[in-house]
Amino acid sequence: MACAAAAAVYVRDGAEHFLAIFGSDLTLFGEMLPKVLAGCLIGAFVTMILPRELVARWVGHESGLTGLAVAAFFGFLLPGGPITIYPVAGAFLVMGADAGAVVAFITAWTLCGYTRALVWEFPFFGPHFVIWRIVEAIPLPLIAGLLARLAVRAGVNVTVKPGE
Amino acid sequence: MFIAVNILLWLVVAGLAFVAALRGRVLFNEGAREGMLEFLRLLPRIGAGVIGSGFIAEVLPKALVASWIGPESGLLGVVIATLGGALTPGGPVVGFAIGSAALKSGAGAPQVIAYSTAWALYAIHRLVIWEVPLMPARVVWLRAAASLPLPFIAAGLAMLLAQP
């Protein structure tokens, strides 16, 4: 897709315009690299040292709206990529956290996680847009968690046996 | 601002590396190695995404973007943006690259927020590639279903609160 778009610009607007865009994209790429490396290292170290059972116990013990808020807060706090986050969420389930808490956790990580925003989103959108987007996303993990609980109450079965 | 972000991220890296080193040399080495490997694996994808984004912004038909998901497009624009987000393939930067390109081409902020929220929460290919292998499938579908209204809520909040 990138190549096709680049070729189209080259053919339509000529080499000079092509090089101008290429230069500014390259600068953006260069600015991102140290952040991406930091993000990768954070993810790897957290995977190594995170006491998964401890986090899961915290989330599993609380229930009600507090449980959702605690889960969402951990989602915001925990850095790392999908390889880190989904096993942690899986551990929550096995430790007895309810589906609503797990949904709130993953949603918060996806929408409000600070490493994700700083590493990936900032370079593209700039701080102003990103900060507003995150502010508007704050209630969303709780809403998703509540919806998931409603679904469970309505009969959706999500019981998980250890080892699944 | 960008320097501050870099410093913050690397402080987190240093802190985590220190904790890992306290737990043992092997753990530290393993974490550093995993982080570097992940970085190298991501490099080509980020390169294509970032360098492509400028060109994609150039070739996006501005009139079409503005009329479909522009600030005047309202709820229909949010629906289109949400569908677009769900269908955009994953990878760490693709959604942000297209979202920022659309913003430059005249898309409205609430619509772009709906787009990137939908992409972050339930881009279909990410659900299949990342979540289903790592989590019980029932929980994944429950989470995706509970997330369905979130892009609309985020866009609605964006319209009410502020225009980034």
Describe this structure in words.
The complex is a heterodimer of chains A (164) and B (164). By secondary structure, chain A is mostly helical. Chain A has one domain (19-153). Chain A has seven helices and no strands. Chain A starts with a helix and ends in an 11-residue tail after the last helix. The two termini of chain B are 17 Å apart. Chain B has nine helices and no strands. With 164 residues, chain B is an all-alpha fold. In chain B, helix 2 (25-59) packs parallel to helix 5 and helix 4 packs parallel to helix 6 (109-122). Chain B has two domains: 1-59; 63-164, no CATH class. Chain B has helices at residues 2-23, 25-59, 62-69, 74-87, 94-104, 109-122, 124-134, 137-147, 150-161. Chain B is globular and about 55 Å long. At the A-B interface, helix 1, helix 4, helix 5, helix 6 and helix 7 of A face helix 1, helix 2, helix 5, helix 6 and helix 7 of B.
Give a count of the beta strands of chain A, DSSP E runs of length 2 or more.
0
How many DSSP H or I helices of chain B? 9
The rough form of chain A would be described as elongated
Count structural domains of chain A. Answer: 1
Q: Characterize the quaternary organization of these chains.
A: heterodimer
* Rg from alpha-carbon coordinates of chain B: 19 Å
Number of domains of chain B: 2
Distance between the termini of chain B: 17 Å
Average pLDDT across residues of chain A? 80
Give the low-confidence spans of chain B: none
Helix content of chain A: over 70%
Spell out the helices and strands of chain A N to C: HHHHHHH
Mean pLDDT of chain B: 85
Keywords:
heterodimer, A: 164 residues, mainly alpha, 84% helix, 0% strand, B: 164 residues
